[in-house]
Amino acid sequence: MSVERRERIRALNDQLRQRHVGGRILITQGVMATGPEGVVGTLLAISRANDFNEINDPYGERDFGAVLVFGQRIFWKIDYYDHTLQSHAANPADPDRCIRVMTVMLAEEY
Q: How confident is the model at residue 1 (pLDDT cuts 50, 70, 90)?
């Protein structure tokens, strides 16, 4: 993968993760059960996550992470779909042909 393509994917993922634009966010029942403060705290922690390295982000796309919120380990994962949401997007660097879905879940729901 070219450096430019990886940087574009990373920027689009950061946009969804940090500003909640450019895709959809799916929050699981476990996270919803933490209540409004838990959900807001979770989304805030995810938006502030910046500890990416070769071990936890081997492809440099910032498409997965874990945060600790109110003592609970939360995972988040960004997947890339075509516009039917039935298949993997052919080009996640092209926002016109890719729908990003960030799933936010308790670690125990994984």
A: confident
